[in-house]
Amino acid sequence: MPTLKLTKRTLEAAEAKSKAYELRDTEVVGLLCKVSPAGRKTFMLQYRNYEGIKRKPALGLFGDLTVEQARAIAQKWLAEVREGGDPSRARAERRASMTIREFEEVFYQRWTLVRNKKSSQKLHRYMFEKYIIRRIGYYKIESISKKEIKEFVDDLSFAPGMAYISLGILSSMFKRAEEWGYRAEDTNPCKGVTTLAKKKKPRLIRQDEMARLMNYLELPEVEGGGRSAYTLAMRLQFAFAARVSEILQLRWAWVDFERRRIDWPDSKTGPIWKPISKEALALLQLAAATAGDSPFVIPNPRDPNRPALYAAYHRAWRKALTVSGIEHVGTHGIRHRAATDIANSGVPLKVGMALTAHSRVEVFMGYVHIEEPMVYDAADQVAESRKAKLEAARSIASGA
């Protein structure tokens, strides 16, 4: 196994291999970093306790800990060993007694607050307090089994959506518990557990429905339409293939008319930018004519210094669907319709992903629907191609 001075640069450069391997530090004897086949890099400390028993506990993940922090922990533990202690055993005993209720606070502080946005933090707290802690909070984090998780999920059969969300949060929590040494590796009790609820793909808004919807969104109320700040927001959402939050939180300071782009400093996936098309430009100019001095492109009608309300936007969307005679579909269906239009427009895949601000192909394609007319056209095209090839083959055969 390689021995070298562990540094941030050497660990970042360490690549995953088919088998796990270790990089040992020359500065602190016993300190090492284990690189798993999945690329996970874990600081560990190898030592023998006062009974001569070999220990090799995990100290933490590279990224969560710096090299300097790992060395400091290793030196502290080695000092305890020299005095006859066994820090690995002591930690294991403390962790073995920790309940899910107690570990939830560790998980929340070390992971949720650091990695998740405010909305996800609130959802985390709500799900634990409302559903999880009441039912399984007293179980030990180290020993709760798949059977007990399955019973928890079945107990929430009256609310399959809540069971689905709870299971996702718990799965992430147990994954962190493994990484941080609170559970043995590859023992996530949520693995293989399913719920009645499944994340459904929104129904695609059909082209005939789009025609009726746009007739309503584009016309002023006096002409039988519903044009307002909220319907303008819907049209902007279509134009930018955007999430609702990206439109309702949009500020004029982020709009660069000269460079024809909008830079969102933050979104569900971090900072993003999108180009301003001719359609979007016309909509933004319309918004500018009605926004006044508001810093928001779609201001709150009652208080221009605040963004438009989500609840009011969703009410306006439901009304637009009802008036247009369209079966209900959530506002996220706008993004699915826009992504499908992008995919079917013939632009390169990477360009389509840039227009929706997706970084992974599989996520982008999850928004793209197959439209029935295209399938019928494809069937006719295949039949015509087959017929042409058959006739050509018969012609050659008869000529022979």
UniProtKB/TrEMBL annotation:
First and last residue of the signal peptide: none
Metal-binding is among the record's keywords: no
Name of the featured protein: Tyrosine-type recombinase/integrase
Domain Tyr recombinase: 200-380
Protein family according to the UniProt entry: Belongs to the 'phage' integrase family.
SUPFAM superfamilies: DNA breaking-rejoining enzymes (SSF56349)
Keyword presence, Transit peptide: no
Record's keyword terms, sorted: DNA integration, DNA recombination, DNA-binding
InterPro entries xref list: DNA_brk_join_enz, Integrase-like_cat_sf, Integrase_catalytic, Integrase_DNA-bd_sf, Integrase_DNA_bind_dom, Integrase_recombinase_N, Phage_Integrase
Gene3D superfamilies, alphabetized: 1.10.150.130, Integrase, DNA-binding domain (3.30.160.390), Intergrase catalytic core (1.10.443.10)
PROSITE patterns: TYR_RECOMBINASE
Domain of life: Bacteria
Classification via Pfam families: Arm-DNA-bind_3, Phage_integrase
